[in-house]
Fold each of these.
Amino acid sequence: MIRPCPNGPTARLALLLALSLLSMLPLPAAALVETSQIGKLLQAGAKLDARDRFGRTALILAVRHDQPDVVRALVAAGAALDARDQFGRSPLILAASAGAAELVTELAAAGAQLDLVDGMGRTALIWAARHGHGATVAALVAAGADASLRDHFGDTALTAAIPRVWAASTP
């Protein structure tokens, strides 16, 4: 949870801008606090695709923290749709894993690669299926995700979903 800055939004924005410019913090942290300030931060020199020590960009953090308005603003500003964190997770993989079907649809429509794999060889579709996110699976399939791809363990989206289906059908 982000707590209010005791000196108000202007002081908070100035601090986050300074950290962003020093590359100690990617733009996303600022975007998560003050969505309306993204343009100002970029004009002041903040790097849209700067990374934190975990390889996360503004877009990755906005998806991870369920900030759809920030995601839209960053995509509109030209954020790298297929940037990956230290585990190889892209914004689309994170959105799919969280079951954020609307974000998945928007990222796919914006041009995110549907079949990127993370460090375990899992695609967004495999993650959505593993977690039982039916609407997200449907969105990815409708966008053209390849359901035949296998992760490093040999699972496809279908075989990744089987344990959840079995558990749900067992009394």
Amino acid sequence: MLKLAERVRRASRDQKGFTLVELLVVVAIIGILAAVMLPRLLGYTNQARVSRAMGDIASMRNVVEAWAANEGAGYYPAPDNSAAGGVGQVLQARGIKWTGGTDGVKDPWGTAYRYGTADVNGVANQAYLIQSAGPDKQFGTADDVWASSSTAPVQSGTPDVTPTTTVDSAS
């Protein structure tokens, strides 16, 4: 019995690492897990970007609505980045970096947000649209994220307001 115990102790002391087969099995398992999980994780990344764009647009929408109610006498800010009463000045005064320059706020895909107003019954600035071009970076497609004077942020291709004049948040 003593000899058997001594052999087991000696064998465990002589063992210095993993065999090549053990390492290959572990690498194969990690590769299979990565191949299965990667497509699922990429979908979550895109949804997170859409959610961020919706949040950004919701914040801008809240500022525009509050300004129209408090300071705009029922009119929405003009699509202008530099004039008083323009969307650039209104949003910047409330902490949103809408400059019209290279340092202006951009959507999660690196495209400038777009703001535009529309006339209603011949009266200017009675409706507005805030829009992100979405993942394909092209305005007017099905993946656009937008909000208007009558709709909370959504992702679809057809806004319910067609602006007569627009201005971008960045260049």
